[in-house]
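Loading example: each entry is read as two labelled lines plus one structure line.
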Amino acid sequence: MQGAAAASSALLLTRVSRLTHALEAPAPAGFLTDAELRVVEALTARLLPTDETPGAREAGVANYIQALLSVFPGADPNGDAQTTAADVTAVIRALGMDDPAADVDGNGVVDAADVALTRSSIFGTVLVGAPTFGGHPLFAGGPFSGRTPFPDPATGTPSTNFPPNAFLTALPLPRVKRLAWTVRLLGADAVPEVADNPLATTLPDVDMRRRYREGVAEVNALSMSQFGAPYDELNTEQQDTILKTVRQQSRDFYDLLINHTIEGLLCAPEYGGNRIGDDGQPVGWKLTHFDGDSQPLGYTIFDETINDYRERPDKPNSTINPDDDCSGVSSDMLAYLNLVLVRLAQATRFPDPFCDSGLPE
Amino acid sequence: MGATSSVPNLLGNTSLSTFDVLIIGSGAGGSAAAYVLTTAGLNVLILEAGDNNFPGLDDPTPGMPVPRYGNDELKASIRVWDRQDPVVEPRTFRTSDQVAAQPNPDVNILNRTVGGTTVHADMKYPRFNEVDFRIASALAEAGRTFDGTSFIDWPLTYDELEPFYAEAERITGVSGIDSGDGSDPFASHRSGPYPMPPLPEMYVGRVLAKAAKEAGYNPIRYPAAINTRPYPPIDMFRRPPCVSCGFCSGFGCPNNSKSSAAVTTLRAALLSRHTQLRFNCFARKLVTDGTGRHITGVEYVDPDGNVQTASADRYILAASAMESARLCLLSNLSLSSGPQFHLGRHMLFHFQTHGVGIFKQRMHGERGASVTNGMSDFRGVTEGGTGLATNRQLGGIIEFGTSSEPIGTGKSSLEALNVANNIGSKIGLKDILVESPFHSHIAVMTVQAEDAPQPTNRVDLDPNVRDVFGLPVVRLTYRNHAFELNAATEFKPALVDIMRRAGAQFGFIDPTTGIPPQSRHVMGGLRMGDDPAVSVCDRFGKLHDIDNLFCMDGGVMPSGSGYNPTLTLISLALRASCNLVQPSAPERCLGTGPLTPP
């Protein structure tokens, strides 16, 4: 009896020591391993290449995808459909064992990173169960990001008073939404309640962790067999050859990647993509001439002294942009529009298009 | 600070334990009902399936609540934050009884949130026309009959509803213009002006309005339940003017200038001390007594997944048309043959046609309240909306808009990009996103055309697919009728012509078919009428055979007109709930509530 207790306490000490180590870990590991992340970055960089303007790499699209795959459910190793302190205990108990339920980050071993990830998903934000990874929320809070100031109703112009960034606060999820996102990240097998819903297995954005793990493995297998190196070590020509094959053979994974690339380029920066560039502007929004979030300032500012609105001269609401030269899209894009609109959608191409002919004041 | 509920998943007066009325759904209809009933001093329990994203909604401090909503496309549209999520709550769809229904991720997906879909709608609030209330008679008089349709006259007139329209505009806060340039010649008579002037015009709206006017049409400033002044003039409820942030249709409003049910009628009901709202609570069954004609309670799934029961003297369905019909079908109601047959039938969605133009200039649709201009010329009614136009079929109001969502537009460009690449185009994803012809350079005219009621267009329970609560899901059977398909052929050329006159490089009709219906305007399934042989509810929304069950959402509408339906839905709910507190004299309760401007 005493011997058993001693052995048990020795084991416990080992685990506590591992736990201490885990708590000291600077950041939990994400779902994608470093090697996988490099492949995802290389893939998205071919979908949205860097040329004279930034692409997926500069926008941090791979970081966006890593955050998405890693946010949630964070952990439910004890399988009680809730993420609570009991889950930390469950991972600690399983530490060093190959317990798939406790392998929270899914990297094949139960280790310090799983404890840390479980902890961060529980205690990382004020409210239990607000999904977030590396500071990037699954659902950003509101109302404002702090990128624009409050309007000044005394003058009808922008004030110098900026609200705090509420987008950095991860919102908690009610039970039903939590189940939905468990299906999205871990698949329908993890949620018995969706057994009679075919969409939980057939939609393109469910079971995303498995899709990425298997998709990246397949990309690498193709790269190895054709060019003898993992995808991220190939030259761009070779990468494009592989990507073409992926598009033909693994359309679901290709579509998931391209959809996430668009999201990672154009989302609010708080989600881990659309990084803020050196000039202080989010890379994706600047690249696409998109104004991004504009509250609380907006574009029509109410002026109490005239009891009416004023517009912003730099970004007018009711008139053409002051810097619009009416040149329209490029000739290559016009040819493309002609193809998809006139040839495929029976559109009319008008002979005499014009730009902004004299709207009344 | 006032007394905000600190109890999880509860808002309002948390100490109430007995209730006069239980309302299922906190959207436009349910909140309007709660407002009227609590003004009369009745105690109300509201069950809401979604979460509360308005912290401080029951706090009387001016400036409250502070929404969790932001200008955040990823959250709102892509990650379906506060909408019904098909991964856990799917629906199925088929075009006729002869084919198997398939699970579909977008069968009229609406919001699951405190305030309902008014939180995300861009709140275009026109009224229906006078003739809409006697549509069956008007069509018959004109000799216009359509096989397979099931038009009936409404069991009330426009004149009977008019005071409630005015009340709805006043307590909600609607902006618009009722005379002169920009007013709608086809709108029916009004007893007073709009509470606020119309929305600041978007650039795209002005470009299209100018072209429409040149073509001989009557472009309007679109009425909207969005503040253009600080409103209402009551400290506790005052909200700021809209700043035209652009994230309007499909987005919750970050600064409360959008007059959603949450920040208007529901907030007033919550502050009355007569309302308790339980959110993240999904109603799964109406419990009846032995007769099946009297409701004794509602079973609901609580935030932890456990089943609870709540009861009251009377019950109001306001879960949106399809969910209210489904809840009736999931319950053991004893209905006579008329209501039994018509329950779930005559489902209505507006038949949308999109005329599209691609322009040289950037339309900057990310500024403005999504739609600020439009026209009613193709509604197909006479001036004042009193009769049917002889030279036009019945169509609908047209919204002048553009794209404000770059992620969604980028994604919807992928298919065309793929087709083009397969036949040799060198345009890549980056070109599409940077030049963004379908986002920055696009203008869209959307027709909200009337779709004919048909008994075969219906909601029932899917025999195979269940939701996360273990319940059979909505199976929608729906097919368009020649009534609306033929009307569309009338206005399609006009849409393309307006694009040409506006200077577009290309003009076309969006070729994607609307199956399942893409309009979010859902009506029918519990249609009202005086004759139980052809209807489910009476003129005040009471189910014919059930003595204490009422429907106060879009389910009661026998036909859908060709205008955005929410203002009419609210007006009907106000009238029906006023009738509960002032039987046979519902107009007596007008102007008595806390949102009435002094």
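The first helix of chain B runs from residue 28 to 39.
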